[in-house]
Amino acid sequence: MFDLIIKNGKVVSPASTVACDVAIKDGKIAALGHFNASEAASVVDATGKYVMPGVIEAHMHCQAPFQGCLGANTFFEQSISGAFGGVTTFMDFANMSRGQSPYTQALARAEEMSESAIDYSVHGKFVESTPEAIADIEKMADAGMPTFKMFMTYKKEGVMSDDETMLKVFQKAKEVGGLPMVHCESNAIAESNIEKCRQAGDMSWVNFAKCKPVLCEAEAFARAVYFTEYIGNGLIVVHTTNGEALDTARRAQAKDLPLYVETGPHYLTLFDDLYQGENGHLAICSPPLRTPEEAEDLWQGLKDGTILLTGSDDCTFDIDEKSMFLEKNPDGTWKQDFTKVVNGLSGLEIRLPILLSEGVNKGRISINKLCALTSTNIAKVYGCYPQKGIIAPGSDADIVLVDLDKEVVLSKEVLHNNISYCLHEGMKVIGYPVMTIAKGKIIVENGQFKGEKGAGRFLKRKIDPQYLAHYSLD
Amino acid sequence: MFDLIIKNGKVVSPASTVACDVAIKDGKIAALGHFNASEAASVVDATGKYVMPGVIEAHMHCQAPFQGCLGANTFFEQSISGAFGGVTTFMDFANMSRGQSPYTQALARAEEMSESAIDYSVHGKFVESTPEAIADIEKMADAGMPTFKMFMTYKKEGVMSDDETMLKVFQKAKEVGGLPMVHCESNAIAESNIEKCRQAGDMSWVNFAKCKPVLCEAEAFARAVYFTEYIGNGLIVVHTTNGEALDTARRAQAKDLPLYVETGPHYLTLFDDLYQGENGHLAICSPPLRTPEEAEDLWQGLKDGTILLTGSDDCTFDIDEKSMFLEKNPDGTWKQDFTKVVNGLSGLEIRLPILLSEGVNKGRISINKLCALTSTNIAKVYGCYPQKGIIAPGSDADIVLVDLDKEVVLSKEVLHNNISYCLHEGMKVIGYPVMTIAKGKIIVENGQFKGEKGAGRFLKRKIDPQYLAHYSLD
Amino acid sequence: MFDLIIKNGKVVSPASTVACDVAIKDGKIAALGHFNASEAASVVDATGKYVMPGVIEAHMHCQAPFQGCLGANTFFEQSISGAFGGVTTFMDFANMSRGQSPYTQALARAEEMSESAIDYSVHGKFVESTPEAIADIEKMADAGMPTFKMFMTYKKEGVMSDDETMLKVFQKAKEVGGLPMVHCESNAIAESNIEKCRQAGDMSWVNFAKCKPVLCEAEAFARAVYFTEYIGNGLIVVHTTNGEALDTARRAQAKDLPLYVETGPHYLTLFDDLYQGENGHLAICSPPLRTPEEAEDLWQGLKDGTILLTGSDDCTFDIDEKSMFLEKNPDGTWKQDFTKVVNGLSGLEIRLPILLSEGVNKGRISINKLCALTSTNIAKVYGCYPQKGIIAPGSDADIVLVDLDKEVVLSKEVLHNNISYCLHEGMKVIGYPVMTIAKGKIIVENGQFKGEKGAGRFLKRKIDPQYLAHYSLD
Amino acid sequence: MFDLIIKNGKVVSPASTVACDVAIKDGKIAALGHFNASEAASVVDATGKYVMPGVIEAHMHCQAPFQGCLGANTFFEQSISGAFGGVTTFMDFANMSRGQSPYTQALARAEEMSESAIDYSVHGKFVESTPEAIADIEKMADAGMPTFKMFMTYKKEGVMSDDETMLKVFQKAKEVGGLPMVHCESNAIAESNIEKCRQAGDMSWVNFAKCKPVLCEAEAFARAVYFTEYIGNGLIVVHTTNGEALDTARRAQAKDLPLYVETGPHYLTLFDDLYQGENGHLAICSPPLRTPEEAEDLWQGLKDGTILLTGSDDCTFDIDEKSMFLEKNPDGTWKQDFTKVVNGLSGLEIRLPILLSEGVNKGRISINKLCALTSTNIAKVYGCYPQKGIIAPGSDADIVLVDLDKEVVLSKEVLHNNISYCLHEGMKVIGYPVMTIAKGKIIVENGQFKGEKGAGRFLKRKIDPQYLAHYSLD
Ligand SMILES: [Zn+2]
Ligand SMILES: [Zn+2]
Ligand SMILES: [Zn+2]
Ligand SMILES: [Zn+2]
Ligand SMILES: [Zn+2]
Ligand SMILES: [Zn+2]
Ligand SMILES: [Zn+2]
Ligand SMILES: [Zn+2]
Predict the structure, then answer these.
(1) Is the residue at C407 inside a domain?
(2) Structural domain tally of chain C?
(3) Most CB contacts within 10 A, which of B56, B181, D25, D185?
(4) Contact C32 D392 (CB under 8 A)
(5) Is residue B330 part of a domain?
(6) Where in the sequence is the signal peptide annotated (chains A, B, C, D) (predicted)?
């Protein structure tokens, strides 16, 4: 007797779309086949729907004490918003500042996340390479958190890892079978530009993007890749935005360097013209939004396998938080100063819809490729496969049902992220998640959240060495 | 009640390896999961084994009236040999000469193949582009044979399709949703070289390879690709042997041209030094064997996705057939004349073992990649997916059990191909098929053939348009 | 005592611009330095002018019995028009048809050219590779004509060299230290397209360009390059029009293949929109005019050294000749049938002005690069360097004075090519030749022709082996 | 009446080799042509010799107070050694440390160099970007020294320019029409490796090369190029040693970035096996010597125009200086500690011979290319063309006569560099300078130095903007 049968759907994996039923028992996939409704306590009719492994979000910043803001959501609220977007597992970053233990911070963050309705995990964050910090890398790997974030910029903010730190973290990550995650922007280019803007007295939204142009990111990307090639480790580069960086990636991947590149839906659908608007600060994120031409390069990278990961880099700040350090002119307009804007965009809930609509339904990628990009590849790279990322006997029953024909006009009302604006306001997407199941329990159905606070469990991760030895997730 | 359960194996797909059982009923996969032995009429214990979709051989020449030889095997015998190599579906080529109907010839060939123990299909062959021949393309596609072979060389033998014919077949194949298959060698280079050898009076085995060097193949490859790009169709290039051609492929694939490249195990493991031996003629095939350096380029192509297909190009001629037009010198050695050697190598049975041993067990490709290269991708490109090429509910129960640790020394005694020599004689392979199941029936077990003559059925094929619209099988 | 001193000019070579005088004696450059007017019989004041080696035209078709037309000019008239464009040496092609001796034809053509006012030479033309034809290659090289033209298309017209002929001519050209010159268009693509147009009943000018698209040229280009790589010879590809071909060239040149690529001014300044006009047939040439985007690729090729040669491919047909096989509709418009248009554009006189204006004055290439592209490189590749192509002691005093500031509006009245239209009508060029000196004699001055019929001499050519051994003219 | 005529030589430029005489008056080239001996006060017979513009050395370190050593030569002695190697102009670097004025230091260095027998100039050196230091850039450009050296490593030694300083110097150099010169090695990689060696207690010569591998240089190279692309300036990268860096250069140059790459003769002829010897420390230079494979890549770069500059990076330390901080083991062998070795190799005198022998006489480059690489290109990039770098009327009569057949076995006795060893000891070179003329005076003839202390003059330089606007010296 199964707990639940999902009947008549099309079950999706990165390599196949199979018309069959999915039987679930004790929170896990029990069997694929064709079953009678009578064999289960309850049945979901998935006729006409795609039955996909739940989306995994490995890149978000919730309750980050960033520039004094914590964001609009608690982790429980964040898990609700995610669930509406098909997300069944998420990972966040430990807080970090000099002198602290990355390991202790990661444990603290895991504790905070335990109120979530879905499974969760934590990445370490590194800003220095003291012997103590480096020693923590092994502890974190042992504790199931073998991923270590670094920023190549934000020197003034005290967040940057310098080249020496990167090399040391790369080396140790390699030794413990872990993966560094790098935010690539050249601090020298960014800071010298900001200084020039300051001297010129023009800190407008538009100048934000000019301060951190494609080459600012591309230089840092190339440097991180050279360090990886030198150390011989694997690497995750988060939120890649441009073709120049992808060309560097192609050359490295052709040498079999295990370089896993992520991009996000905002870089595919939002562009730097937003900075020309009065409320351009709402679109300020790092790296900045780029041009439609760069977005085409990103789609090419998604198609040809240069980019194997997507992530939202979700930072859900409401207008008041984005603007909290800003002043206004006498005429009510903003005194534009991009250095005073809290960085980051909300995106957790819309990653899947945007990729369904702009990717699958526009013929750029198949539903199978989408499955890899939102779930399977992420599970593999971050070390929770095959527990997560696949619909197969024995795996967790984390599932999202997708209606590829459902049309939704994105707006702040449609989303569940607790903020009063939506950068995609008015955008029609075709293809939407219609049911989310976490470990066998329906947590979103008919537009209702049915999950439970604290139902999520800490996900202990370990990366398969084959993904660290070659550039391949097959 | 199932007919058969394969218990405790590791079920392989291109994207996953899942520890679960496979339940079979009425010749088809009924379910994946964990089942009790009591649920089936019989049970196979696959503990420690990989459970893979049966190998598909889309490139072989059996009973081809080639230069007066028919080869050592009937189609039934061929299916036996294949079954020992994990092959559960095979496809051969229609005979063809000017003035004949390709469609009629294909039907005749299908009839001949009906004695096979495994499912089978037929590719058309084209040497001219008369209106009648072109009209046959649609008939063939309608009859489930949407693949059309052409040779860019063998002009003197009357087998070559000239550029005009290629363009016309490409155009029509595109219109009917089919795929041309091209043997790429520049006839002008090959024939002018052969003529030079003839004038120089040196027709030694060694000169055979020199007459058709890498550039001979690479020029034709580039030409076929340009024609494809111009017409806008998809293309299969068979038996690709070198990195120069792969570089051409990479550029075309990066433009999203649906260019599916095949290579064969002989080009990965046999090299042109064989032509230096007295019995070098046994190694004569076209294109000729190359160098180990080229083989490394092929492995790279397999790894990075430039090559998505493997095929044996099996031509099982025994020594007497290979040598039937040759004469001997007074001292008993061969009067070497490569133009009198019947071309082609036996390979049907060893494709899987060689790719297991040299590919998976040497760490060059994963077992999942192997699955794609020997089965899934072939099913997709040739239009019989998901009936074939995957272990999923609803698919044919064509399965091969692989023991990745089993060691076999290849030799003529070990193989079942009815010939008295083996070019891989003495080569130890690690990893071997240990059981073959065709449509739910065990046809090879414990080294015994248990299949049935005529059990094979004609496989009606239709290519998914998405594989013709983009270069992607995901 | 010198015959002539050119004072105060800027003497240009591919690597330098030197402010000095040029002293001439007995038709040759005697010295460079600073001389008193009293040291010479006459003096030209070149203050503010660039003193450049005379333009060499190695690609023109004058008095070609092409489709029944001979063109508007005798060779003497052609040499006058050329002289106004700074041309001091030109080369034409032997006529050729099957069964004739290429060598004899070349001699006959040389005889015809002897009425020219400037020095001249002849290229052989090959349409077949009979033993006799091949044997002529050596005779031609010995006679100072080591360049051999072939067409890869025009099969129906009986002008095409097939692949076998190309290989044989390439081989023999290599043996005698000569260079094949190839017109690259795929006959199969071109003819199959023309046939389709014929069946569709649409032979409009616009369709002409569609029949011979970029890929039609690029395929043939790649094939010619593969043949060259295979034979190991050098190659000249004439009138290259697109970036796809240039990418092929770059790869070959990076392997040090001596592949010398030519483009012409028409492909840089005239585009395929001309075919939309009622008189679009006047713009019909082969390969067809392309887009501005392709022209940018050509400029890139000129800048980065992929293209080292320019040539006009001059075919000076007047309107009546271009239209002689055409009929008119009742309303007086042309019954468009591109197959009935005599191919080719006039360009001899405007090559230098266009390259000065569009190249040098628009900052795309330096005056030194221009010198190489119009004179020095051509002299080197075609084997008349340093007799031609450089202003240095001992070289022929073939010189053109250029005023880089002179503005001229191109029109049929401004040119001297005897035809009643100008495709560049109304185009303003900045930079123009103002004096032409051939072997020490002023032949154009103040807009007057001062040369002499029959003053030209046959130029015996021999190619420096270093240019055949490497891709380098340095 | 001329002062000197060089008769019957072959006068070399980057684009031509002309058989003519060179007439000299008042230290300058007066005329090229054919002159009577009676027209000059004296005559040199150059029959059979190549008459080339004198070698320019823009990269040497003489009297550098480096690690406490000044080197074996005064500037006068250095100019003598150079003259024997055909050098007629040299440039050195200002000393520099924090808080000092780069401009003042450059003037001081010019004063020190004034004892030279040949013309000289100075590059600035920058280790910081204080407003004062940046302001000095304009002063230096105005004073004829528009080239500014920075090191990307040697942080501990206080010599490194960090990324911020590089960006500021690049920006200002651009504004004043100058060029930065960068020593590319990643400090993070180098220092972290050295630290590892120290911890492992193995500071052997061999480990020196391992600490600064190809990727150490390549990362810094890529970073410098990205900064250049970002700022939009031109750049000189000195002493490039490997193909990875050249590939980066090719991509940048293809975008028309004015990136001028230098390599040196030691990287073409000396390899890292030298570090295995007891006296391996004598071969320690930075970047380290590489492999023969990398040298082949450098030759390719020289051939295809990726590398347009050569320089010796001469640091003439005698054995005692190289070893002055080293200790010995009881058995008399060195206590190997590469951090205690004074870096740098002698090379000023052998650059021309090595390039003649390994380059021209081995068929890798033409004598014209050699001319560009040793003189013309350097004059252009460093801003002293056409005063230097060309044999043309009006240019300085700096000339070296080369006998391309002269064989010399290199040894410490043959050279004039005041040191007691020669890393090329025993190497036979074919092709050697046989006479050196500086500003019309013979300074080396028949193995004798005939120059005069203090005859050199400070060379005021200014870079032609065209070389800063495009990647092209034509
Ligand atoms: Zn980030
Ligand atoms: Zn982030
Ligand atoms: Zn074949
Ligand atoms: Zn075959
Ligand atoms: Zn042509
Ligand atoms: Zn032509
Ligand atoms: Zn240095
Ligand atoms: Zn140096």
Answers:
(1) no
(2) 1
(3) B56
(4) yes
(5) yes
(6) none
